[in-house]
Amino acid sequence: MGDRPVFELDHKTPLQAANLPVINQLAKEGQCGTADPVKPGIVASTVSGTLAILGYDPLEKTVARGVVEALGCGMKINIGDVAFRGNWATLDEKGLIVDRRAGRIREGINELALSITGQKIDNVRIDVAAGTEHRIAVVIRGPGLQDCVSGSDPGDRFHSGIIPRPIKPLNKNNPKCLRTADLLNLFELKAREILAKHPVNLKRVSKNLLPANAILTREPGQSHYFPKIKRPSGM
């Protein structure tokens, strides 16, 4: 627990000056150790670590982050839908990424999501929900879809000043992968057109704030049967 010395507390930190009978008892009687939630030598991701804590074997059961994000945003995912994690992002007039988090936007995110959700392209519906700050979830619903595609988010490293990552099928021989990639490409382009004119973004620009004029997607996944927590853990 990080803290700083305070003049009024005789240059002690608040933690040093506080009366901490419970923490002191835990320190005296508790035990410390290390655990390998997945397997020795394997660094746990957010998903695999959480699954292990809940009693699942993350080497046998896994779930894509896109699905987790969508469920966390309150979205329903049907069998066959493809869900993505995503960000609100800022692109310049040349289509280059200025900020892949749109200045960590907080205000107006539900209005932005509402403006682009429900788009229909080639027999599918694409829904968007706002998460926390710059985070969003995108769900493509319809026939002939599969999650074997790359997203447009280039990730944390070396992303400023480049175009969004091309959305490509990971299996060019799979018609479902090709279709899903094409649909996501079309949707992201359509979203940019709508977001560029949105009042929330026009207001942000007038205040010299970064507009959320694009979305970047990543970590697609599909829903599948998952045993309830009570089955492996007894809860």
TrEMBL record:
InterPro entries: Alkaline_phosphatase_core_sf, Pglycerate_mutase_ApgM, Pglycerate_mutase_ApgM_sf. SUPFAM superfamilies: Alkaline phosphatase-like. GO terms for molecular function: phosphoglycerate mutase activity. Pfam families: PhosphMutase. This is Uncharacterized protein. It comes from marine metagenome.
